[in-house]
Automatic annotation (TrEMBL):
The keyword Transmembrane applies. The lineage of its organism: Bacteria, Pseudomonadati, Pseudomonadota, Gammaproteobacteria, Lysobacterales. Keywords: Membrane, Transmembrane, Transmembrane helix. It comes from Thermomonas aquatica. Coiled coil: none annotated. This is Uncharacterized protein. The chain crosses the membrane at residues 26-47, 53-73, 94-120, 132-154, 161-179, 199-220. It comes from the Bacteria.
Length: 228
């Protein structure tokens, strides 16, 4: 099985094509995320909670919309015959879709994560929330990458919708779980940033899940000799 793209230039074209399709919607989402960061930056409990919730919702929506419009919608619109006419292999399409969606999603993801960490470290509030924010941000990224890989590897729209909904329902319980976990709870309102073994273990687990999802989707595409 060949895991590499056969034509890097074609992969770049696929990435640029998806970026051009999604850039207007992305600009709208970024505007909403900046507004939500502004609410968090006000510092009042009510505004911070509202801003944090809006950030979480928008990050989920931007990922879901990207996967839906750039992967699932293209499949529904029967664009495969056109793709088959291009000089591309299944792995070219896999890497094009994966990297395009990751590039698009990482823009708002890094904006939100960097913005929140900057606000925490630059304001008088407790810096101990930094690992907590990192864990939740990575979990949202895990949700997106797993949903994306399922959408790329599985043709069934029903299974894709089920995977997205199932993953989204895990976010709330995960936030509650890490908030009260030993090694996190006692440092959450402290002034020091503590990377406890529990935090590092969860970070490693989240990174491992992302890697496994990408490898599994790549393996499914690498088995294909052609689109037929």
């Amino acid at each position: 099985m060949n895991w590499l793209a056969s034509d890097a230039a074609m992969v770049r074209r696929l990435i640029v094509k998806d970026w051009q399709v999604y850039q207007k919607q992305l600009a709208g989402f970024i505007g909403g995320l900046l507004f939500a960061l502004g609410l968090v930056g006000m510092g009042t409990p009510l505004m911070s909670a509202a801003g944090g919730l809006l950030l979480l919702v928008l990050l989920i929506v931007v990922g879901t919309f990207a996967v839906g419009s750039l992967v699932m919608a293209e499949r529904k619109q029967q664009t495969q015959p056109f793709v088959m006419s291009l000089p591309v292999t299944p792995m070219d399409v896999f890497w094009g879709k994966l990297l395009a969606n990751l590039t698009i999603y990482m823009v708002p993801f890094l904006l939100v994560t960097g913005g929140l960490l900057g606000l925490i470290l630059a304001t008088p509030g407790p810096d101990g929330a930094v690992p907590w924010v990192v864990l939740i941000a990575l979990f949202v990224l895990v949700n997106f990458i797993v949903s994306l890989c399922v959408a790329i590897a599985v043709d069934s729209e029903g299974w894709n919708a089920f995977a997205m909904l199932a993953l989204m329902t895990l976010i709330g319980p995960f936030i509650y779980w890490v908030t009260w976990m030993d090694g996190i709870r006692e440092h959450l309102r402290g002034d020091a940033v503590v990377w406890s073994p529990q935090v590092l273990g969860l970070v490693g687990g989240e990174l491992a899940v992302m890697a496994i999802a990408i490898l599994a989707a790549g393996w499914a595409h690498a088995r294909k000799a052609s689109f037929l």
